[in-house]
Each structure stands twice: as structure tokens, then as C-alpha cells.
Amino acid sequence: MVKVHPGRENTHFYGALNLATGQEVVLRSDLMQAEVSALFLPQVLKTYPDRPILLLWDRAPWHQGEAIRSVLAANPRLEVVWLPPGSPELNPQEQVWKAAREAVSHNHQCAKLSALADAFEKYLRETKFPCSLLDKHHYPNLCARFI
């Protein structure tokens, strides 16, 4: 017998993976929308205060909108490269989500979503996620000025 929660509780995570170090920048949120994405970007900028940042982003609706455009306009050291539609294999962050789900949320025994979300966030913050995207696609110098 598997017990399931009858409600629709949920939580969301924003994440940015440093391709050079494997370190993850994380934000937990009740909402997934452009205004929250716009709050996450300053967190990324604060994490790497002294260098330009190249952000590979998919075309999710919460990555677009006036709030995002305002943050990008105010922070010229943050540059966005839009990934092609329907290409999660090119998005290194997708591999982070997959690894975290396998390690934490698949076949879990947490009775409360908050405990599961805490474990998920802890895993994201404490794990180094190797990424071979640049090597795999033969772009070893592509991001040299950003690393």
C-alpha cells in the first residue's frame, strides 16, 4: 500500500550550475514565474560578483517578461544565451534536476513535502555536479572569458 497526499502541495526550485566548478546556486520558491526568476538573477550575480556571467537558458515562460528584461538591462555583465526550443539535452541544469530527483525524491519515505524539499535543497547545495557539455560539444574555449 502506498499512501499519497490528497492535496496538491508543491514547491519549485531555481538553479544555476557553474560549468567550471560544478557548484549549484539554488532558490526555493512557491511560484515559478518571471518575477521570481528576476529575484533569482541577483542571487547568481552576488555569487559571482567579479566576473561576467554567461547564462544558458531554456525558453520557459518564467524566463521571459518585463521583470527579466529589467534585470538584464541593469546588469550588463549577465549575458543570456537562449537554448533552442525542445532541447533539454543541451541544458546542463536538466542533468542537475535528474541527479537530484534520483538521489532524493525517487522512492522517498518523507511524509511531509517540506522535509523532502529541505533534503532536495541540501543535496543541491552540497553536491558538485560535473558537466561535460563544453567538452562533449568541442567548445573548450567557448566560455573562457566567463570562467
Could you describe the 3D structure shown?
With 147 residues, this protein is an alpha+beta fold. The chain has one domain: Nucleotidyltransferase, domain 5 (2-Layer Sandwich), CATH 3.30.420.10. The protein is built from five helices and four strands. The strands form two sheets. It has a two-stranded antiparallel sheet with strand order 1-2. A two-stranded parallel sheet has the order 3-4. The longest helix is centred in the N-terminal third of the chain and has 14 residues, at 34-47. It is globular. The model has no long low-confidence stretch (mean pLDDT 87).
Key traits:
147 residues; 4 strands; single chain; two-stranded parallel sheet; globular; alpha+beta; Nucleotidyltransferase, domain 5
The Cα radius of gyration reads: 16 Å
CATH topology: Nucleotidyltransferase, domain 5
CATH architecture: 2-Layer Sandwich
Any idea what the shape is?
globular
Instruction: Say which CATH homologous superfamily is assigned.
Output: Ribonuclease H-like superfamily/Ribonuclease H
Strand coverage percent: 5-15%
Number of domain units: 1
Biggest β-sheet: count, sense, barrel? 2 strands, antiparallel
Helix content: 25-40%
Number of strands: 4
Q: Output the structural class.
A: alpha+beta
Sheet with most strands: strand arrangement = 1-2
